[in-house]
Structure formats: structure tokens, C-alpha cells
Amino acid sequence: MSKVSMTQSPVLTIDGPSGAGKGSIAQLVAKALGWSLLDSGALYRLTALSAKRQNVSLDDEQALAKVAEGLVVEFLPSEFGEPVKVLLNGDDVTNEIRTEVAGNDASKIAPLAGVRKALLQRQRDFSTETGLVADGRDMGTVVFPQAEYKVFMTASAEERAERRYNQLKTKGEDVSIAALLKEIEERDARDMGRKNAPLKAASDAEVIDTTRFSIEEVLAQVMSLIH
Ligand code: C5P
User: Was domain 3-155+200-219 assigned CATH 3.40.50.20?
Assistant: First the structure.
């Protein structure tokens, strides 16, 4: 029996495509409930970044699996609105793993079974007695299939591109919405079309389309599932 099916600790899984608002909602719910937080996408981003730093090719599955197994990472708590501080081998990579390149690199290595296997237990180990909010693509389907609460959060690709555009603009980055939309559509296709743990809603997940909702409205919907 896997460790996850033996534990009674509450888990809320939030899956969905890039830019649907999972990260913000996961952070807010975890804070409101005093639960731990797993940003599983960060582990894929860190694996790709660590591989590049070690000159490991992003299609060498065996070597990438070793990189994933050997990751030395720390997640330091942050205020809402601020990204969680992430250290890789003690080096602050908070900003580096949040770039478009890092996201695309992550989605290129994510289809590899060896990489996913290497990260599986590490993700389950985030579970604590108090509770866990787990944000990703396969949290409700593969990593925590027994989770008590499951949400699948989505939004139109246009809306997600616009949100990302506004985020990047605030940071002073010069990007075009058209380019972001293309990237988002390509990433969706890769994440949904892969054989291993494709992006999809678990059959028992509550699907929330956030296109026309504010963060506060989505938060209220998610919290109402738990209370
Ligand atoms: O969520 P985030 O954008 O940080 O994820 C980056 C990429 O990592 C995703 O596009 C996806 O390919 C991969 N990923 C995954 N499974 C997860 C989380 C992320 O395959 N649970």
C-alpha cells in the first residue's frame, strides 16, 4: 500500500493548465487553513534548471531522473503576492525558475516517465497531518488520487495569456500577448497530449472555470468545498 493511501491527512488538489490561477488560490487557501503548500510545477522547473546547470541534455531521460532524485531544494514561506522563495543547492533561484523559458523547459521534461517517477515520493512527502494544498497537473489523478478535496481550475487561453501579460508588464518585461497565447497553447497541447500523467480533471474533481471570476470569487468557491 502506498504511503499516500494510508494517511488520513486532508489534501486539497488543484490541477489545471498554466495561468488558470492555481498558484494564487493554492497560496491563499493554504494560508487561510494553515495547511502546507506543494507547488509541484516548481519541482519540474527546478529539475530542468538543475539539469541545464549540469550540462545534462533535456532529452536524456536517465540523467534527468538522476537530477530529479538528487535535487537539493528549499521552499521558504513568503507573503501573499510574493513568490515563495526557492533555493537550489542553497542558491536563490526564485526569479530564474519563474521565467517563460523555465516553464517551457519544465514542460519538455515533464512527459518523461523517469522524471515523474523520481519526483513522485518527494511530492507525497509534502503531506502533513494538518493538511496540504497541492498545485499541479496530476495532483488529483496520480500523486494524491485519494485526496478528499479536488479542484480542476481552468480559464480560456486568451484570458490566461492576458493575465500573464499583465503580470509580466508589472515586472517591466516587454512581451506580446500574441506570443504568450501561442506559448500557452503549445504548453497546453504538450501537457494534455502526453502519455504519462496528462493534464486532465480527475473524475471526482470540481471543475471551476475562472475566466469570468475574480480571485476572491474563486477562493470563496474553493473554501466552500472544504467547509
Ligand atoms: O505549474 P507550472 O507552470 O510551474 O508547471 C510547469 C510545467 O511543469 C507544466 O507546464 C507541466 O508540463 C509540468 N508539470 C507537470 N506536473 C505537475 C506540475 C507541473 O507535468 N504536477
Answer: no
In ligand 1, the atom with minimum distance to the C-alpha of 107 is 12
**Average of per-residue pLDDT values in the chain:** 93
Ligand 1 proximity of 27 Cβ (cutoff 6 Å): no
pLDDT in tens, 10-64: 999 999 999 999 999 999 999 999 999 999 999 999 999 999 999 999 999 999 9
147 lines ligand 1 (CB under 6 A): no
* Residues 6 or more apart whose Cβ sits within 8 Å of residue 42: 73, 75, 84, 86, 97
pTM for the whole structure:
0.93
Ligand 1 pocket test, pick from 47, 137, 154, 192 with the greatest ligand atom count within 8 Å of Cβ, gives: 137
Instruction: Parse the chain into domains and list their residue ranges.
Output: 3-155+200-219
Looking at residue 145, what DSSP letter applies? T
